[in-house]
Write a structure and sequence with these properties.
Number of helices: 8
Number of strands: 7
Helix content: 25-40%
Strand content: 5-15%
Distance between the termini: 72 Å
Radius of gyration: 29 Å
Order of helices and strands: HHEEEHEHEHEHEHH
């Protein structure tokens, strides 16, 4: 009797062991592979330095495009782009907009901002008064260096047009330095937006003096790089913008900006086709 009971007990114990092994094997097979990659959400709003410490979203290759999300990350969030090693900000409507890098002449109420709106391009402005290709102010460096240091964040997506404006604050710098920094900026933007057309807008002035010299340097860079160049180099004189329309001798009055905006919109339209809204893109994983 004892031998039979012992054999039944052994068979029962073996059954329990086999069940436990099978359960563990199934659980292990269901566990995700941590090395298989995947996508991460867009980073929340915050400064770029702290965002860099957070996990980076994975990059999807061309074969994965059909499984990519069909909606953009939330407006105002940050996205890390491993291709360029930089953070980018999510801005609604970037596909229909002109990205503007510039100085105080490039604000939303200036001849640049108003002129772009009249030409059909809402402006996404990355710029600051007192800056230039070389010149910085107390807050940010010159254009290319400000982007490299992420003092300005480029918008994520594909703008319809890129406008490089300015140079009036660079008059105290050597032509060689202006040229080098302009080339540096163009290389950076072409890396981030390889398919986007770039237009360079020179230095507004009366056609003489240091401002016109900077304008000529930038015109040469644009010709060398094969990008469009629009010169406002003599607009102050040609369109009667002196006097009350330019009260401090350097900056336009509100009416002066309105006059110059109409001219800018007209000349820009001769360089690039009028802007029309684009179909919303299929958003790939950043």
């Amino acid at each position: 009797m004892r031998g039979k009971a012992t054999r039944k007990w052994v068979r029962g114990a073996l059954a329990v062991v086999v069940f436990a092994v099978l359960f563990l094997a199934v659980a292990a097979a269901a566990r995700p592979d941590p090395g298989a990659g995947g996508t991460g959400p867009a980073l929340p709003s915050g400064d770029a330095a702290s965002a860099e410490a957070l996990p980076k979203p994975a990059v999807s290759g061309p074969a994965e495009s059909e499984t990519a999300p069909t909606t953009a990350p939330a407006a105002g969030s940050l996205v890390y782009m491993p291709q360029t090693g930089r953070m980018m900000s999510v801005v609604p409507g970037v596909e229909d907009s002109a990205l503007v890098i510039g100085d105080s002449q490039a604000g939303p109420d200036t001849w640049v901002g108003q002129g772009l709106e009249q030409a059909g391009y809402p402006a996404i402005i990355r710029g600051s008064g007192g800056t230039g290709y070389v010149q910085g102010n107390s807050t940010v460096a010159g254009y290319a260096r400000a982007l490299e240091a992420q003092q300005w964040l480029l918008p994520w997506g594909t703008p319809r047009l890129i406008v490089l404006q300015g140079g009036g604050n660079d008059t105290a710098h050597p032509a060689a330095d202006i040229r080098a920094e302009a080339l540096r900026l163009i290389r950076d933007l072409r890396q981030s937006y390889p398919s986007v057309r770039i237009v360079m807008v020179g230095v507004i002035g009366d056609g003489t003096g240091p401002r016109s010299e900077v304008d000529r340097v930038l015109a040469a860079v644009a010709a060398e790089q094969g990008i469009g160049f629009l010169t406002p180099g003599d607009w102050w004189a040609r369109y009667g913008l002196n006097g009350t329309l330019r009260p401090d001798g350097r900056h336009l009055s509100p009416e002066g900006h309105r006059v110059a905006a109409r001219v800018f919109a007209s000349e820009l339209a001769r360089m690039v086709p009028p802007a029309v809204p684009q179909a919303r893109p299929y958003y790939a994983v950043p």
